Amino acid sequence: MINKAAELIRESSNPVVFSGAGMSRESGMRTFRGEEGLWKEYSPEQLSSISGLRADPELVWSWYRMRLIAGKNVVPHPGYYALTYLQEQKGHLPVITQNVDGLHRQAGQTDVMELHGSMRTASCIDKCGFSVHLTSELLRADPPVCPDCGAILRPDIVLFGEPLPPETISRSYELAEGCDLMIVIGTSVQVWPAAGIPFAALEGGAVIIEINPVQTELPHSDNVISIRRKAGEILPVLTGFKEKR
Ligand SMILES: [Zn+2]
Question: pLDDT > 70: what percent of the chain?
Answer without folding.
Answer: 95
